[in-house]
Design goal:
- The chain is an all-alpha fold.
- About 65% of the residues lie in helices and about 0% in strands.
- The chain contains 13 helices and no strands.
- The protein has helices spanning about 1-10, 25-30, 35-40, 55-65, 70-80, 85-100, 105-120, 130-145, 160-175, 180-195, 205-220, 230-245, 250.
- The longest helix has 19 residues, at about 205-220.
């Protein structure tokens, strides 16, 4: 506890000196990706990020399969229309229901019923049946192994926060190798803002909790359910954004129109 408090007092956000002032819409857009700013110590008040151009190219190519301007819109379209939230909406309620059963036989029968439902429902959501089954088994394994115990409960109904934050962060990264212009970047960030306009969350805390769950869901899928060793890192970033002076989450109300 003492170390956590000490970390709060010692931490300060990276503020880019001389950065052009942001209008309210731009501030809100960057605030959606502020978890990455707090975690990676990126500038909290500017669109630009600092770093090596070639290393950034490699990161974007590996993580997003984006190797140049012609690939940009495909990445945006994925995040805007599906992301991980569509998989989560299909899988998470089934896993939660499965975890409430105590009888091993019923558990097995319910899992089989879920698999049939996923096979039927995935195409209607524009999802690959194979991918949907994979995430169901991985999220179930992560839950049964206790890998989700560190997450705040109840789990959110939507992880759109994860998709929106990634869209903002990807946009900032793509500026460095000049895959997009500044005008294109702000337009993309506005698209990320639109993802959250339906008020899935009532506060920045809810938004941050959903981001962390989204990251855990993503990690479960790529680690076959073994879990996310960095959950605490991103939970700490969220706490800093909620608690430390100078955070955009303290300056901007989450709810739109407030």
């Amino acid at each position: 506890m003492l170390n956590a408090l000490k970390g709060m007092f010692l931490f300060s956000f990276n503020v880019l000196e001389g950065a052009p002032p942001l209008n309210p819409q731009q501030k809100r857009g960057l605030a959606l990706g502020a978890i990455y700013s707090a975690e990676a110590h990126l500038p909290i008040n500017a669109l630009a990020v600092e770093g090596d151009r070639e290393s950034t190219r490699s990161v974007i190519a590996e993580a997003w399969d984006v190797t140049g301007p012609s690939d940009v819109e495909g990445a945006y379209e994925y995040l805007e229309t599906s992301g991980h939230r569509t998989l989560y909406a299909l899988v998470a309620p089934k896993v939660e229901l499965l975890l409430t059963t105590e009888d091993q036989y019923n558990d097995l029968e319910l899992a089989r019923a879920h698999e049939r439902e996923i096979t039927e429902q995935a195409p209607h959501s524009g999802l690959s049946i194979e991918t949907a089954h994979h995430y169901y088994h991985c999220w179930r394994a992560a839950a049964q192994l206790g890998r989700l115990d560190a997450l705040d409960k109840p789990l959110p109904t939507s992880i759109v926060a994860w998709d929106a934050a990634r869209m903002v962060n990807l946009t900032r990264l793509m500026l460095l190798p000049e895959y997009i212009s500044e005008a294109q970047a702000w337009a993309a960030i506005e698209r990320a803002t639109d993802l959250c306009r339906q008020a899935y969350y009532s506060s920045w805390q809810d938004f941050g909790d959903a981001f962390v769950v989204g990251r855990a869901f993503w990690m479960a899928g790529i680690s076959n359910g073994s879990g996310d060793s960095e959950i605490e890192v991103f939970q700490r970033a969220c706490r800093r954004l909620r608690d430390i002076e100078g955070s955009p989450w303290r300056d901007i109300p989450y709810r739109y129109g407030v």
